[in-house]
Amino acid sequence: MPTDAIPLLDQDVVGRVIAAALTRGGDFAEVFVEDKQSSSALLDDGRVEELSSGRDRGAGIRVVVGESTGFAHTSDLSELGLLEAARTAAAAARGAGAGGVAAALVPTAGTARTSAAIPPGEVAKARKVELLLAADGHARSTGGAITQVTARYADSHRRILVANSDGVLAGDDQVRTLFSVSCVASGDTGMQTGRESVGRTVGFELFDDHDVTELAGNAARRALSKLAARPAPSGERTVVIGPGGGGVMFHEACGHGLEADLVAKGASVFAGRMGEQVASSLVTLVDDGTMDGEWGGASIDDEGRPTRRNVLIQDGVLVDYMWDTLRARADGRAPSGNGRRQSYQHLPMVRMTNTYLVGGSSSPDEIVADTADGVYIAHLGGGQVNTATGDFVFGMTEAYLIEDGRITEPLREGNLIGNGPAVLAAIDAVGNDFAMGSPGTCGKDGQGVPVGDGVPTLRVASGLTIGGTAA
Amino acid sequence: MTPEDVQRIADRVVAQARPGEAIEAVVSWGRETEVRAYDGDVEHFVSAESAGVGIRVVEDRRQGLGWVGVLEDEALADCLAAARDNARFSSPDPHAGLAEPDGVVPPDLTLVDERLALVPTEHKIAAAIDLEAAVRAGDPRMVGVESADYADAQVVSAITSTTGIRVAGAESSAYLGAYALAADARGTTTGFGYTVARGFDDLDAAAAARDAVDRSVRLLGADTARSRRLTVVLDPYVTSQLLGLVAEMLSGEAVLRGRTPFADRVGDSVASPLVTLVDDATDPAAPTASDVDGEGLACRQVELITEGRLRGFLHNAYTARALGARSTGSAQRGSYRGAPSVGPHVISLRPGDTSPEELLAQVGEGLWVHELVGLHSGVNPVSGDLSVGVEGQLLRAGAPAEPVREVTIASTIQRLLDDVVAVGNDLTRFPWEASGVTLAAADVMMSGR
Description:
By secondary structure, chain A is α+β, with helices and mostly antiparallel strands. In chain A, 20% of the residues lie in helices and 39% in strands. In chain A, strands 8, 9, 16, 17, 18, 19, 20, 24 and 25 form a nine-stranded mixed sheet that branches. In chain A, strands 1, 2, 3, 4, 5, 6 and 7 form a seven-stranded mixed sheet that branches. In chain A, strands 10, 11, 12, 15, 21, 22 and 23 form a seven-stranded mixed sheet that branches. In chain B, α3 (121-137) runs parallel beside α4 (205-217). The longest helix of chain B has 17 residues, at 73-89.
């Protein structure tokens, strides 16, 4: 679309809006402008039944006075509308002083367009519909036990501009494309489900590297295999997690607990533990917003700071938390490019991007062969953590028993529960087969943002309890 | 903006319908305030307005959708064009179409507290700061408050369609809640408490503070427990979360797509005779009460399970048409973005006549569940498999005893309904689409040490 070439807002207007935000005083003011177009197509029951196109655009303005933030947002991007929102934000911040001072805006070097080789908006809708029908056909061809198939295509094009009174002026152009397939298999034991998805911060070229029929086949296989699954065991077991699928465990076991805003409030078991051994020496954990094309990445965060590769745990030692602008200011350090928000209608906070466990040296086959008795998890669902206690859960959506060093029978779904520090300490093998996992949406304080994760094969010797129904 | 203002916008969109084309427009506008207190001061104060339009077009039995987060004419024109174009690419569906008026008169509900608009900002700020202070002062073991929030919203919305739907209304809500941290030598625990009302004046801040303190303090010293089968007693909050999942399994959408084990079971016994399950959007005391559903049809009482026997399912206009039923006024629209799905407004068990204390005494030995962890990853509404983390207290001789954490409970939704052994009389309403009572279910697997 021709609008792509037009900057979201004129630089002089941005400067005047920041000045207006600081008229009642303030230590920091910021304008965040967003224009996001989304489209999706849903196939269910053999029919393409829901094609949808949407657009949200507007600006969020915040003013920080001491430890207090005032925030207002508007969908009116005219200068008048923005100035009114700036005054509302200033009033909300309750600054009592004279006008605050803004540094001159300096466009940030190095913030580039996120490249989408094939903008999804330029691809014919008929082509997207073909992908859905191909996935449906392939899933159903895997056997009569597949009784239902849902496939979803979605893309988004998000353009942002961020400017603040520190002189930051940065923009980004983020294109994401997603495809998912869910299958229902029916048998004597009832119904089971299988799901598979792929999503990257790229355009329609996603489908050059990913075959939707392969995705559909995986989803169908997952559902079919569970028809014969036995109830999962209950109680503590040794757990081996397969490559790619297990990143969610680290996201919950320690990722959230390493967010500086939760740490500052004493709501993390990792508070006050910098420099300490918090995990097995096999654990090196990284959050990396720069990973090319990964689902949780972008060139800048939603505060205009370049994303970075941040090592959080090095050989088991806690070396850093993740930071947004406010927490970094309070601690007198640089932000780490982890300030993110769901949309212009939300305040930014500390969020993960792509979080992963660095690969080790063990052979994955040997890790399994070396496990006398346990559970092998090939694919995980979502999870949840209480950062203050460290207790976390995650779901297993494809899992098997390990008996005498061999992967044997499939298990029904269930959650696993554990405590972050205890589980991190109990990791006793890390494989050499690192892979990124499925695209995720991370929820925190009511806001969802896209995140990625990855792991090699790894083993947790103790500390994980399987929430099954079998004795 | 007023309901009339947004209705006029919806009318203008629908007036552009061409011959042979059905159009529905949903328009909403809202104003919201949010205050978060921390350390006796304002952490953030949010003041905002937002609006949007959703458009559904049906032509030649094909449906297309569009939405946009502004109300400007040019954006609305683009949105309508996109919805029309989308319709061209969807598959023809013999049941595609919009809702049509069915003659049912909407209940007369008051969903707005007019006083809310007059509450000074300073009072809202003070409410959040005072709540934080009350939680901190509630017990010597309180060590912090992760968040203490006040929030309110005033929303107007309208639906107009070429099929004769034309409704508009207003709603208001206010919320005060805290997430607290307690600690002693044995570790840290968390607990929440909140209060909701149509307006500021009916909030019960003392109750919110007390809940946050109680919920965190009673878990101090919690540990895992030995795996075993036992009777679980769910508190009303936990019951309401599970009923939301039951409702999903009883939606016409799940039936139509063959994604629920209850599909062919109308008339069968699917639960203990103690279970009568009703969705009643017309309950004026419920925060999610509503006069019309997401397609503009009247909300009504729907009895889904009567004394254990399955009576029927929730429907919107589409699932009703496809399954030869009548809409139950259960079209759900989370926002103007997207097509209406099917879901409850205020689903609830008919309360029994046992008080929670009597119920705990009756059960004797078991697990009293205060909180579920990992509900979205631990429940599969297609198979009914359920496996979730819990926090709570063991019951010994009918009284709450040692607190537990890092354990899970597992069963299936089908079995859990069958295994209900007692229903409490403590109907508690929540700011989401399910109410709760204290509920006991036998023979659940607790997994721990």
